[in-house]
Amino acid sequence: MQQSFTLKEIAEMTGGRLIAPSGDAAINRVNSIDSAGSDQITFISDMKYLDNLRKSSAAAVLSPQQLEDVNMAQVVVKDVNAALIAVLEKFAPSFDITPGIHPSAVIDAAANISDTAAVGANTYIGPNVTVEENVFIGPNCSIVADCSIGRGTKIEHNIVMYPHVVIGENCIVQSGTVLGSCGFGYRPVDNIPRLIPHIGGVIIEDYVEIGANCCIDRAKFGNTVIGFGSKLDNLIQIAHNAVIGKCCLITAQCGLAGSSRLGDGVILGGHSGVSDNVSVGSGSMLGAKSAVVSDIGPGSKVMGVPAVDSKRFFRRIVSTERVPELRKQIKQLEKRIQSLEKAANNTK
After folding, report:
1. Does CATH number 2.160.10.10 belong to domain 100-310?
2. What rounded mean pLDDT belongs to the chain?
3. Catalytic residue at 240?
4. CATH 3.40.1390.10 boundaries in the chain
């Protein structure tokens, strides 16, 4: 159902100052400057887009300062990004977290489920699973055994949790993700690769968000760990015994090999990876498609395959771009040398 808020309500939810003839105008959506309609609110954080805003059809704008010559209502806020998040949270689709267990769900007698939790249709919850207060578990999930889900966490549709997965409070796990599957660890026995049994678990700390279709393997021994506040995009592979620090950002199609370690606040660009048993220091940043094959220290900025310091990487790019010009110059020098040698030989 479409939801709307008055400008006055939006000013209150953002802690902003409303500049408008009336605060009763209804806002039905948040949109970009160029696409916003007459019943929608937009935002501006960079004044280079001010001319675009003046041409916009939006009913109102979230702005860090009062704007001149702008023909729309304004909500002046301290932090546009924080205000935008607050408004988007109100308009974002929400799950029905009405407490209760769907009649088609299968719940083991040894499971412990809070009365305030919601369990969707066709979901299976096995023995010794603990589901705390205000947890949402969507349809078609399978939580095999010996798992726990902290209060306020949302487990969306079609998610599998193998045994010994612990999820903290206020986490989000999006659809299609698999937690605690067996790690990819093989050793040759009689020239045949044999799978090493993985008997560890997965620990996902509080306020972690995991995107759709991610795979996080259980540890061989101990635990694979996703640290407090870290955010994982879609299509990410975290191998057995990997440890991710607090508040890391990992974008789509990244991979961490077995026993790799990320410090706190590490950012991985899309399609980048870390080799097995390699550590990445806190605050480091990996550019897109980078491959880290040896330890890097805190605060590093790296790119490339294998990853090197980003400044060095860009110097390589500049040098590579000059290769055709340098080849041309070398050919010209070769011709001059040949001409000089010929002239010298003729004078003998």
Report:
1. yes
2. 94
3. yes
4. 5-91
As a whole number of Å, the CA-based R_g of the chain is 28
Q: What number of residues does the chain have?
A: 348
- Using CA atoms, how far apart are residues 72 and 159, in angstroms rounded to an integer? 44
Q: What are phi and psi of 165, to 5 degrees?
A: -110, 125
3-class DSSP string for the chain: CCCCEEHHHHHHHHCCEEECCCCCCEECEECCCCCCCCCEEEECCCHHHHHHHHCCCCCEEEECCCCCCCCCEEEECCCHHHHHHHHHHHHCCCCCCCCEECCCCEECCCCEECCCCEECCCCEECCCCEECCCCEECCCCEECCCCEECCCCEECCCCEECCCEEECCCCEECCCCEEEECCCCEEEECCEEEECCCCCEEEECCCCEECCCCEEECCCCCEEEECCCCEECCCCEECCCCEECCCCEECCCCEECCCCEECCCCEECCCCEECCCCEECCCCEECCCCEECCCECCCCEEECCCCEEHHHHHHHHHHHHCHHHHHHHHHHHHHHHHHHHHHHHHCC
172-210 per-position pLDDT tens digit: 999 999 999 999 999 999 999 999 999 999 999 999 999
Q: How far apart are CA 217 and CA 228, in angstroms?
A: 18
Mean of the pLDDT values across residues 124-146?
A: 97
Q: Which residues pair with 41 in a beta bridge?
A: 30, 60
For 205-221, write each residue's pLDDT tens digit: 999 999 999 999 999 99
CATH number at 5-91: 3.40.1390.10
Residue 277 identity = N
- Check 157, 164, 198, 240 and give the catalytic one: 240
Query: Which residue spans of the chain are classified as CATH 2.160.10.10?
Result: 100-310
List, for residues 307-336, the tens digit of each pLDDT value: 999 989 888 888 888 888 888 889 999 888
